[in-house]
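hey team, just a heads up i'm posting the complex here instead of the shared drive bc the drive is being weird again. everything in one block, sequence lines first with there labels, then the predicted structure for the whole assembly after. its four chains so it's a bit long, scroll down
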Amino acid sequence: MDVHTAAETGTRARTRRAILDAAVTVLTADPAAALADIAAAAGVGRTTVHRYFPERAELLTALSKHVWDQVVEATHRARLDEGTAAQALGRLCQEYFDLGTVLTLVFNDPAQAETWDECSPTDLAVLDLIGRGHRDGTIDPAFSAAWVRDLLWALLYSAWQQSTTGQVSRHDALDACLRALRKVIAP
Amino acid sequence: MDVHTAAETGTRARTRRAILDAAVTVLTADPAAALADIAAAAGVGRTTVHRYFPERAELLTALSKHVWDQVVEATHRARLDEGTAAQALGRLCQEYFDLGTVLTLVFNDPAQAETWDECSPTDLAVLDLIGRGHRDGTIDPAFSAAWVRDLLWALLYSAWQQSTTGQVSRHDALDACLRALRKVIAP
DNA sequence: TACTAGTGGAACATCGATGTTCCACTACGG
DNA sequence: CCGTAGTGGAACATCGATGTTCCACTAGTA
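-- predicted structure starts here --
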């Protein structure tokens, strides 16, 4: 069957996906959740989880990669090199926001820090974008690139917080997030 | 001896304090850390930890209260009713920043959420302060009170992040944090 | 000096999460 | 209809964290 090299068959891919999605949901709520909880959330048996990810660490690694791939895609969709840097940063903010609380998972997990490499191409692209904003005058040079990047994440975290606790609609949360971002980076 | 009602003797108070401080440090780095790690960090035996906090949950509760007390004190020191609301919010930001990463602990712990009551007097005082800012014209009314409060935490988180990773000095991190805060809330 | 509070460590029992094995069941394509 | 991929569940072994008990040690103090 050569399962390892070829793409997995439909059923297997679907089950694998279901487990990863459930893991995102459950682990976001409780990073120390047991595999049994994840299996239940995915609607599969605990045995099946072990069939796809023999060890917990492997599930976490795959999960990290799963989320990471989404980040790379989202960053790509934001077309960082089009328009002014401030506009591109706004698009990036929207794209990341759509990924949901997923990101807080890997973002806060110290064990997966190596996967979330600060020097990854994506992170560098974001820093470059902010540097471009410093030069094209659409981002306040008084704030360092690293600070603006961290600020972006912090604002997203707040926005997710607001929309999760149910006080605010997703749309309003994103709107406030974008307005705050623009105000801060405005030169 | 009536240990329970009277204040604890010097030695006991000191040991208790050492355990709580160590717990803050260790649990901030890894929320799932074992009691043995906390004991080691505190420089006491694991048995001693159990002597002060028979169950892990009791340690977490005491820890939460420990941190919470610091927040209440910091809020008080910020003298929220003096000067303009924007000035007071700046002072509050500084006071909270000085508490360090301690706050991210309770802030992120879902199990301790009830202690961190959203409707606590302190939280209400902060929301009132922002409301005052809306009226006295020093805080942009386009941002709701809850959003500004969450924003404050988000900025603090970023600032701590920056100063922890060692790229930026504590002073510079706080400075950037305050400047960002002022820019966002400026009407 | 003797007494006591406080401590550290060894040893043990317990519990929950993890990982493994095995078997029965179901869906599905030949 | 039969064989196979995929699955669920029971049962078991293991491991680490937790909680408990007991005893020996040390620093103060009457």
